[in-house]
Design a protein that fits this description.
Shape: elongated
Number of domains: 1
Strand content: under 5%
Helix content: over 70%
Order of helices and strands: HHHH
Number of strands: 0
Mean pLDDT: 96
Distance between the termini: 22 Å
């Protein structure tokens, strides 16, 4: 595997994180707490692996320009901007949500998780959308 395979690895990790988050949500709705906990730890692990892979790739390759013309440019950059802002915001949200769970502050955990889950899902899904737009739908020259 080369550094140029990492964007695909990142998209796979983001996709897996999305599945784990949705599965974990389903488990907690069904009051399957142990299964929920396992899914959420797996989602966190997947996100950490994504971050390591993402930083490794961009440290070696730099940024990739989106060169597609026309209507897709503002769509892409709107998605990218919202994704980037929320990707930064989600880190402390996840850590605080996790901290509340580990301290068994479940009422406080639940209140924050209601915000953390949709933001984390958005970041995971838009990460895959950005990958598809940048590397497949409108690949760099």
């Amino acid at each position: 595997m080369s550094v140029h395979d990492l964007p695909t690895v990142n998209a796979i990790l983001n996709s897996l994180c999305t599945v784990l988050l949705l599965t974990g949500f389903g488990f907690i709705r069904a009051r399957r707490i142990v299964a929920h906990r396992r899914c959420m730890w797996a989602a966190l692990t997947t996100s950490v692996l994504f971050l390591v892979s993402y930083l490794t790739y961009h440290a070696q390759v730099g940024s990739i320009r989106f060169t597609a013309p026309g209507w897709i440019r503002p769509v892409y950059f709107t998605i990218l901007l919202s994704h980037t802002i929320l990707a930064v915001a989600i880190v402390p949200m996840v850590l605080l949500t996790l901290r509340r769970a580990l301290r068994e502050q479940f009422d406080r955990h639940r209140k924050l998780a209601r915000w953390t889950l949709p933001v984390w899902l958005y970041v995971s899904v838009t990460g895959v959308v950005i990958y598809v737009l940048l590397y497949h739908a409108f690949p760099p020259a």
